[in-house]
GP-PDE domain-containing protein (Salibacterium salarium), 96 residues
Amino acid sequence: MAVSFDSYVMIIAHRGSTTPSIKENTIEAFQLSMDEGADMIETDIRSTKDKKLVCSHNAVWRGQNKKYDVRRMESQNDKERRMVSISFVRSFCCVG
C-alpha cells in the first residue's frame, strides 16, 4: 500500500535523538530516533583527510575525552571517536 504524503506528517530526527549520554550523529542517536518512531534521519556529512564521508555537524568532532579536526583525521572506526560512516548510515536507514 502506498502512503499518501498529502495527509501524512513525517517525523524527521535532526542528527538523531539525543540525551545527556547520547551524542548527535552517532549510532546510538540514530537507533534511539528509530525506536521513538522517526520516519527519517537527517545528518550532516564531512570528509576526512582520506576522503571518507562521516557524520559530523562541525569540522571539529568532540569525542569522549578530546576534540578532533575531522578534515585532518583518517577515517578510523575506533571506540574513542565513534564516528559514523555514510556507508553505515545507508545500511542502517535504507531498508525496505
